[in-house]
Amino acid sequence: MERKENRTELEYPAVIRPLSAEEGAGYLIEYPDLPGCRSDGETIAEAIANGADAIACWIAAMKADGRDHAASPEDEDRSRARESTAEGRR
Questions:
Q1: For residue 62, what is the domain's CATH number?
Q2: Mean pLDDT, contiguous 10-residue spans, the chain (90 residues)
Q3: Out of 7, 9, 18, 90, which residue is the most buried by the measure of CB atoms under 10 Å away?
Q4: 69, exposed or middle or buried, with CB in 10 Å at 0-12, 13-18, 19+?
Q5: Could you tell me what percentage of the chain is helix, strand and coil, using 3-state DSSP and rounding each to the nearest 5?
Q6: How far apart are the first and last CA of the chain?
Q7: Contact at 8 Å (CB) between 26 and 43?
Q8: Which parts of 2-89 fold into alpha helices (H)?
Q9: Is 4 a domain residue?
């Protein structure tokens, strides 16, 4: 069985802040590693769920535009581990 990896909001650091009444109330979630990727919700949980959709759309837009998306911290850790292993074999 083939396993497909799904990116989730857990792979990218997020900043969540309350929105003022003038901003529409609720909560804003932003992903600093993904420029311009943000969403909101009436509750923190809703902002996080909407943020997961925003990440998927952001990555799809980058791929459609032929640009590489930002690596998640987990991707960077795996890459460093592979590099260390390769250097150890030399």
A1: 3.30.160.250
A2: 43 95 96 95 97 94 84 56 52
A3: 9
A4: middle
A5: 50, 15, 40
A6: 35
A7: yes
A8: 44-64, 73-89
A9: no
C-alpha distances out from residue 29 to 17, 35, 42, 48, 65, Å: 7, 12, 11, 7, 24
Domain residue limits at 82 = 9-89
- pTM recorded for the entire structure: 0.66
Tokens of 6: 């799904």
Hunting for tokens 């990555």 — which residue is that? 59
**CA separation (Å) from 75 to 11, 25, 28, 45, 69?**
9, 34, 25, 25, 11
**What total of structural domains would you count in the chain?**
1
Position 55 in a domain:
yes
Report CA-CA distances (Å) from 9 to 62, 73, 80, 82: 17, 12, 22, 24
Bridge partner residues of 63 (DSSP): none
